[in-house]
Design a protein that fits this description.
The structure is a single chain. This protein is mostly helical. The protein has one domain (3-98). The protein has six helices and no strands. The longest helix is centred in the last third of the chain and has 19 residues, at 80-98. The radius of gyration is 15 Å and the shape is elongated. The chain starts with a helix and ends with a helix. The model is unreliable at 95-102 (pLDDT under 50). It binds zinc ion (ZN). Residues 17, 19-20, 22-23, 29, 34 line the site of zinc ion. This is Putative non-LTR retroelement reverse transcriptase.
Length: 102
């Protein structure tokens, strides 16, 4: 659960991201915008697509990522081994951020 949702449910008084302490932690911050996850996306994407990728709202971003257009944005250096490693790192980070007591 994001800090934003925890605050809305009155579980906490702050919606600030506990990882970066720099922004409201909503779903898009956790998945894309947190400074701890953003470098992963930047390493996967061609530089010329960063602005579009990082300026979408969450509905646009999810739809885009499910579309074939997203594949055209990927950096050509990706292969299945590096992708598995990066995804494992990302899932580890996501598990940490969503763990109870965070
Ligand atoms: Zn953050």
């Amino acid at each position: 659960m994001t800090e934003c949702k925890r605050k809305a449910k009155k579980i906490t008084t702050s919606d600030t991201c506990k990882r970066c302490n720099n922004a409201k932690e909503d779903a898009l911050h956790v998945l894309r915008d947190c400074p701890l996850i953003k470098p992963l996306w930047e390493s996967m994407l061609k530089t010329e697509h960063w602005h579009r990728f990082f300026s979408m709202n969450i509905d646009e971003w999810i739809s885009f990522n499910l579309s074939k257009a997203a594949n055209k944005m990927l950096n050509g250096s990706w292969n299945s081994r590096t992708l598995r490693g990066r995804i494992s790192s990302m899932l580890g980070l996501a598990s940490f951020s969503l763990a109870p007591g965070c």
